[in-house]
Design a protein that fits this description.
Distance between the termini: 117 Å
Strand order of the largest sheet: 3-10-13-12-11-14
CATH superfamily of the largest domain: Helix hairpin bin
CATH architecture of the largest domain: Orthogonal Bundle
Number of domains: 4
Helix content: 25-40%
Structural class: alpha+beta
Radius of gyration: 59 Å
Strand content: 25-35%
Oligomer: single chain
Number of helices: 4
CATH class of the largest domain: Mainly Alpha
Number of strands: 22
Length: 421
């Protein structure tokens, strides 16, 4: 039917192939039918039921997985929320404050400390006591040779005798002229003149006698005498030294230095914040590092009644009886003052304080939230501090608050043992 001989041959080949396949299928069909006859036929609708069951199981598995995932997410959210709540330890402030002992370094001084200078010029003839010697008032410490003073005294005494003689003569003359005046033998002017000369002679005698006493006192200063009971702490002269009077030298050298050590003064600088707790008449105790077992009782006798504007401290004097010589002037000691408790305050541990830019703060529980409360510290006792204002005894105070803590933060409180730090 086609004019193309190639296409005709191809069609003929395909037809022959199809016929061969059909004859082969016809030969094999009886064999398949025999095999199929040995198996029971599938019930109607079996294949759709199995599919439905499979799909249902799949849906159930998917739903259960979604449920588990949601439950896990909810649990994770709950755990995360609980973990975000800070767990803190809280305690109650202690009413009042503990009795404290204010310990301050003290400066020990002799009750009387005096440098001894010469009051007359001369040479040191002899000294009788060296350093460390205990002397009594009036003891002779040294002798000074002052020949100039001795000769001036002799001259002054002779001058006094001359003036006294003139005074006697003036007195006799005045009496005679007064007798003559009564007889009208001399004028009133001449009598008054003789009486005036007598008065002037009496004044000259008084002046000369005063000069003699002055030189006698200077001569007395040739003997250097102890002015009080005490200890010689320094000797700065020796035999043959040229001695210059303290008043006549711009830089006099002290011969001896004496301290009265029977009673010692101890000066301590009390901080202004504690100055109201120290009163005259209070008892204080002294300790010394050089003698740890030493504990000396003293008494506050006076204070400066003024705060030093440089150190902001009150200068307090404590006197102690040192008759046994246990302490020495200049010793480094500590003064223990008793500071009574203040019933109007509370005490909290030091680790409850928060140092913020706006000032000291303390975390206080308000329900399940924290409020940062400003406080005023009275005394610092080391492990604890006295709070003068800002807290009450029934407040719950947060211990060891984190630096990130702010007001309104939700926390989980837990009381320390016994509700106390």
């Amino acid at each position: 039917m086609s004019n193309n001989p190639g296409i005709t041959d191809s069609v003929a080949k395909v037809d022959s192939t199809e016929q061969a396949g059909n004859s082969a299928q016809a030969d094999t069909v009886p064999a398949h039918k025999d095999t199929a006859c040995t198996q029971p036929p599938a019930p109607p609708g079996a294949i759709p039921t199995l599919g439905i069951i499979f799909i249902g199981a799949l849906l159930i598995a998917i739903g259960y997985g979604i449920h588990l995932r949601r439950a896990h997410e909810e649990r994770l959210k709950r755990v995360t929320a609980e973990s975000s709540i800070i767990s803190v330890a809280v305690t109650h402030p202690t009413p009042g404050s503990p009795d404290d002992e204010l310990v301050l370094p003290g400066n020990v001084q002799a009750f009387t400390s005096t440098p001894i200078y010469a009051r007359t010029d001369g040479y040191l003839k002899k000294w009788y006591f060296d350093i460390g010697a205990h002397v009594r008032r009036g003891d002779l410490l040294a002798v000074i040779e002052a020949p100039e003073v001795d000769q001036q005294l002799n001259q002054s005494r002779a001058e006094l005798e001359r003036i006294q003689a003139n005074e006697q003569l003036a007195g006799v003359t005045s009496n005679r002229w007064q007798s003559l005046l009564a007889k009208h033998a001399v004028s009133q002017q001449e009598a008054d003149q003789t009486k005036s000369n007598y008065i002037a002679a009496q004044a000259a005698v008084d002046a000369s006698r005063a000069n003699v006493r002055r030189l006698e006192q200077l001569q007395g200063y040739e003997h250097v005498i102890a002015p009080f009971d005490g200890v010689i702490t320094a000797r700065n002269t020796d035999i043959g030294d040229l001695i210059q009077a303290g008043s006549s030298s711009t830089n006099p050298r002290e011969l001896f230095h004496m301290d009265a050590t029977g009673v010692l003064r101890v000066y301590a600088s009390v901080p202004e914040v504690d100055s109201d707790a120290v009163h005259d008449g209070d008892t204080a105790f002294l300790t010394e590092d050089a003698n740890p077992n030493l504990r000396i009782e003293g008494r506050v006798v006076r204070n400066s009644n003024a705060i030093n504007d440089t150190t902001r401290t009150l200068n307090v004097e404590v006197d102690i009886d040192n008759a046994n010589g246990v302490l020495r002037p200049g010793a480094y000691i500590f003064v223990h003052f008793h500071i009574p408790s203040n019933p109007g305050t509370v005490s909290i541990p030091s680790n409850a304080l928060l140092f913020r830019e706006e000032g000291l703060r303390v975390g206080v529980m308000r329900g399940d939230r924290v409020e940062l409360v400003p406080v005023t510290v009275g005394h610092d006792y080391g492990n604890s501090v006295e709070i003068a204002a800002g807290l009450r005894a029934q407040d719950e105070v947060v211990l060891d608050p984190p630096d990130s803590l702010v007001s309104g933060t939700e926390v989980r409180p837990r009381l320390t043992s016994g509700g106390r730090p």
